[in-house]
């Protein structure tokens, strides 16, 4: 399962997740309206979840061209607790996807090692539901479109730094990985040149894993609300 890793493999998560996925872009187009739910026959007690994978492209987002595999985390509550499973779903050539799920809490992951997905796409599904997913090619990380995501709260932001003889120094390029349930990673970003990061739509409890090659990994647990963090990384 490409998005289901044990903690011991954290430094390799980005390289190991969905290697076949990719996206790119460099100039603005017209804004893309949210995708309406797709109506399709489903089994009794099941619902259609549909949407579009959109990629940052200059000043806006456009449908991601080419087929790709995205991943659902489907979590169902029972009298004995909750159970979850990873479900791969394929998009069409225009970035559209559709899937059938039971009553559950669903998270959707579409990012690849060449992209960021700073927003957690996570919703209770009790009827047909539309969930668009926005990814940001690394080259577009500072684009107008990518910056617009910082208004989609709850926002978790922070500074990643290390302590040196010269004082606190930012750690650029650190991986910020959002874990929603037992090492199921469904959002991802990196720190910028001054060690800052943001995550958007954090509407459920999460664990944030922070690290990069040459440093020990750190974790923070959040309940699903806006926060601003300071995270120190220590070298191995």
Keywords, please?
single chain; 236 residues; mainly beta; Immunoglobulin-like; four-stranded antiparallel sheet; 18 strands; 4% helix; 46% strand; globular
Structure characterization notes:
This protein is mainly beta and 236 residues long. It has one domain: Immunoglobulins (Immunoglobulin-like, Sandwich). It has helices spanning 13-16, 144-148, and strands spanning 46-57, 60-63, 69-78, 81-90, 96-102, 104-109, 115-116, 121-125, 129-130, 133-137, 156-164, 167-170, 175-179, 185-190, 196-199, 206-211, 218-222, 227-232. Strands 1, 2, 5, 7, 9 and 10 form a six-stranded mixed beta sheet that branches. The longest helix has 5 residues, at 144-148. The chain is globular. The two termini are 29 Å apart.
């Amino acid at each position: 399962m490409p998005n289901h890793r044990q903690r011991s493999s954290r430094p390799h998560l980005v390289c190991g997740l969905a290697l076949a996925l990719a996206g790119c872009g460099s100039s603005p187009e017209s804004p893309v309206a949210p995708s309406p739910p797709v109506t399709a026959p489903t089994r009794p007690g099941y619902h259609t979840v549909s949407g579009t994978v959109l990629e940052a492209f200059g000043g806006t987002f456009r449908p991601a061209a080419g087929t790709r595999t995205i991943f659902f985390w489907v979590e169902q509550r029972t009298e004995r607790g909750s159970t979850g499973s990873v479900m791969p779903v394929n998009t069409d050539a225009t970035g559209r996807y559709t899937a059938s799920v039971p009553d559950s809490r669903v998270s959707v992951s579409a990012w690849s090692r060449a992209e960021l997905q700073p927003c957690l796409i996570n919703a209770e599904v009790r009827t047909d539901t539309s969930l668009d997913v926005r990814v940001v090619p690394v080259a577009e990380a500072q684009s107008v479109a990518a910056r617009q995501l910082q208004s989609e709260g709850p926002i978790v932001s922070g500074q990643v730094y290390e302590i040196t003889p010269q004082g606190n120094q930012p750690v650029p390029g650190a991986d910020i990985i959002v874990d929603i349930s037992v090492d199921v990673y469904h959002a991802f970003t990196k720190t910028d040149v001054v060690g800052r990061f943001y995550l958007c739509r954090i509407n459920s409890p999460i664990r944030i894993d922070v690290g990069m090659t040459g440093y020990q990994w750190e974790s923070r647990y959040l309940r699903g609300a806006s926060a601003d963090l300071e995270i120190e990384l220590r070298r191995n």
